[in-house]
Every structure is written in structure tokens, then in C-alpha cells.
Amino acid sequence: MNGAAHITLVPDLMWHRGEFRTGLAVTLAGDRIAAVGPRDDAAGPRTLLPGKALLPGLVNAHSHSFQRLLRGHAQVQRGELKRSDFFSWRETMYRLAASLTPDDLLVVARHAFTEMLSSGITAVGEFHYLHHCPDGQRYADPHETSWSLIQAAKDVGIRLCLLRASYLRAGAGKPLQPLQRRFSDGSVEACVTLTTDLAARVAAASDGRVTAGIAPHSLRALPAEAVVQLAVAAQRLDAPLHMHVAEQPAEIEEVRSEHGNTPLAVLASCGVLTPRFVAVHATHVTAAELDAMASAGAGICLCPATEADLGDGAFATPEALCRGLSLSLGTDDHITMDLLRQAGDLEMRERLRQQHRLVLPRAPHALLDAATAGGASALRLPCGRIEPGRLADLVAVDLEHPALAGWEPSANALTACLLYSSGSATVSDVWVAGEHLVQSRGHATADAHRFAFANLARRIWS
Ligand SMILES: [Zn+2]
Question: How far is the CA of 128 from the centre of ligand 1 (A)?
């Protein structure tokens, strides 16, 4: 898909330099933003966007697209009431993961990515670990399932950072469980070789809308020396480095018994914490660990809806924001694609915890930043802000949507309405690389992808 030619968008409001402003226009040239300035100064063809506010495209920094199939089905009790937690959910997820073919992954990802686009998400970091056949044998092309995800992104137009995950064991000294076999490349060397090879092939074949990153799955699934080798590869490739960290207390105890320390302390001592490193979840962390993350310039990706869905616990958002940590957001298991509401939920869950109001520093603006610029930083993509030189990934929200009625005259009230009330229901139009993919809430192939997905879900769950 080619980017649009020179065009100037003229909305009523634009999110620029951390707030909504009036009187601005943005000029797109190909896949980039060429200029931002007073609407009266803009030259060339114009597209007026009356009743619209323009935002940078939202960035979803953590996704497992196949888990979209779990929505609804993993939320209900089957049989007699018994304790359910992350690990019982994981058994359901593993059984699903083992049942999917590369064609199934294509079908799921096409729908999940379209749903993301329609919710205002223009870029996604796909943390991908279903690499091989269910019995662990390789496909004829070892990147078969990665190509499914890349094809899905190209088909619907979303920007994709494919974070190829490495996974070698069930835990310290524990061999892979049968349902984990398709995650594993078999050795540290194979993990590095396949990851590096995929990154090179993506770079050679992409128009820039698909990039590659590196994802050691977790310290539970990998020995520390493997994480270090993958971190070295990420540095060599100048790629993002993402890892699940401290999601569950049981995981922390496992790491403690192997290494004598917590996951973040182990990663710090290995030199893995750098500005390219993003800890996904980091739910159970100490103040000292947040200090170490902040001084290393490392980021944290929060997945509030998934962390609530799985009963993980609540992240220390105020402590992270006070330290200036770079936060991003992910939809992870996709119980919802509404990244705006998930950003707002970070404030709401703190109100519940602290039993008072208006808790987070610089909220809601800092939270909208996490959903845009924070995600761009996590995926090392030049998007996330409406500034010259950045990628032309943009979202328009409908200021005449009933859920937004009454925000005027305070643009601050609009930000609060979007994050705490309306969420992505107000998204009307979406551009990726200057291409107008969602127009008046419609995406050209959404229905076809939804029908195919629904048929697959019926086959899986019947
Ligand atoms: Zn995850």
C-alpha cells in the first residue's frame, strides 16, 4: 500500500505538544508529516475535518493476536466453581495455542488488527511465540507463522513491529511441557539465528510499515545467559527488546530460587536494562527496582485490562510517573481493544487503591502520552506525536459523538472524557502512513475478516 500524496488535514482541534489546540493544520507528504502550523498558512489541497479532533495514532505495544480467540470464552466458569488464576487461564491459552495452524493465525490476526485500527490503534507490537508445529517440528519455512502475521498486517494496513519471542524451558531445570513445544527454537543459538534472520528478511522485504524486534519471553522461560545473548543481538540490530517481567508472584519466587534475586535485579546485574529494554507488566516491583529502571532509561509496558482479567495485581503507576519512567500500553490478551479507556483505568484503579481522587501526576495528559508517544518509544518507531518528520499515523475522534457532548469550552475536559468515559467509541477516522484506512468508522475489508474470524471461533469452541 502506498502512502497518500501531499495533503493538509484541517481539524477543529489537534493534540499537539501535550494538549488539544485550535487553529492548527497538519500537512502530510507520503507516509510522513511534512508540517504543522496555523491553518491559515497551510498551502496545497485541504481536507477539512469539521467536528473532529486529531490525535497521534495509538500505539499498542504488547499484543498476542491469537489470544483474541479467548475473548468471552476464557471469562466464564465451566463446571463447578473453583479457584481460577493466571495459571488456570494459561492452560486454556496453551490448548488454544496448540490448535492453531498458520492459516488460522492469519485469520485471527486480520480480524484483531482490523479491530485495533477501528479503535484508533495504528501500530502494534506483536509478541509472537507460536513459531513451530504443535509437536515442535519446524515448518518448511521456519518463519511460516511470522509470515502469517506480517501478511495480516499488510492486508489490513496496520503498522507492525514483530517481536519474535524466544522460549526454551518450562522453568529452571524443567523441560518444556508438551503444549509449549511449538514455542521453542531448541537452543540459545537457534533463537539468536532465527531471530536475526527474520529481522534481516523483514528489513529487506518491508516498505517500512513492518519492523522486527526481539523478545526473550521471560526469565522463567530462558536462562539468563540466553537473555544476554538476545540483548546483544538487539543492540547489534538496533531493535527493541521486550520481555515479560514480574507479572506473577510465583514467577518472582521461581527466579529467586534460581538466581537468588528478583527478575529486575537479575536483569540489571546482566546489563540488560537499557533504553531499548521494555519490561512488560512489571506488576510486582519494588521502589528500588523502579529506580534502577529509571536510571537505565528502560521502559515499562502496562496491560491494565489483561492484568485485571488475569488477576495479576495492580502496577505502581504513581511511583513510575514520579520517576519519569517511560510508560506504554498494550492490549495483550485483547479482552478489550480500547486503549484510551485502558489508559484512563490507570487513574481509576489508583483511586480505588488510595481511596481518593485525581491521583496520578499530570493525568490524564500523561496517560494519553503513554498510549501514543510512550508506545512509539517502546517500539522504537518515529510515530506517536503530530510533529514534522514523524510518521503520518493519525486518528480523528468525532466531537459530535453523544458521549463527548458538553466538553466545551475546556479542552482538558475533552481529554478526560476520552480517557475516562467515551474511550475509542468516538474514533471515526484513521490514517496509517498517510493512508486513510478507516473512514467514517468503516474499514474496507472489516466484514470479510470478521466473518472468517467468527467461523474459526465456532470451530475452536464448539
Ligand atoms: Zn504477554
Answer: 9
DSSP states along 122-166: EEEEEEE---S-TTSPPPSSTTHHHHHHHHHHHHHT-EEEEEEEE
Residue 30 CA to ligand 1 center (angstroms) comes to: 33
Distance CA 162, CA 137 (A): 22
Decide if 332 is catalytic. yes
Q: Residue ranges of the chain with pLDDT lower than 70?
A: 1-5, 81
Catalytic residue among 312, 332, 345, 369: 332
CB atoms within 10 A of CB 295: 11
Asked whether 126 and 63 are in contact (CB, 8 A), the reply is yes
| d(CA 293, ligand 1 centre) in Å | 19
Q: What is the pLDDT of residue 88?
A: 85
First CA to last CA across the chain, in angstroms? 37
Distance from the CA of 315 to the center of ligand 1, in angstroms?
A: 15
439 shares a domain with 352: no
Residues 278 and 130 in one domain: yes
What is residue 404's predicted lDDT score, i.e. its pLDDT? 97
Question: For residue 223, which of 168, 277, 279 has the smallest C-alpha distance?
Answer: 168
Q: What contacts 24+ positions apart, CB below 8 Å, involve 250-255?
A: 250/87, 251/218, 251/219, 251/220, 252/284, 254/171, 254/172, 254/220, 255/219, 255/220
Q: What is the pLDDT of residue 207?
A: 85
Grid-cell match 514523524, residue found: 390
333 is catalytic: no
Grouping H, G, I as helix, E, B as strand and the rest as coil, residue 207 is: coil
Active-site choice (128, 281, 284, 334): 281
Answer yes or no: do 90 and 142 share one domain.
yes
- Name the strand (E) or helix (H) holding 366: helix 365-369
State the distance from the centre of ligand 1 to the C-alpha of 451, rounded, in angstroms: 26
Q: Give residue 183's pLDDT.
A: 98
Domain range holding 146? 58-379
pLDDT at position 2 is: 44
pTM of the model: 0.97
Q: Are 419 and 367 in contact (CB under 8 A)?
A: yes
- Is there a single domain that holds both residue 300 and residue 398? no
Distance from residue 309's CA to the centre of ligand 1 (Å):
13
Distances in Å between the Cα of 171 and the Cα atoms of 195, 218, 219, 399, 450 are: 21, 10, 8, 50, 37
The answer on 398 and 254 residing in a single domain is: no
8 Å CB contact between 386 and 10: no
Cα 25 to ligand 1 centre (Å): 38
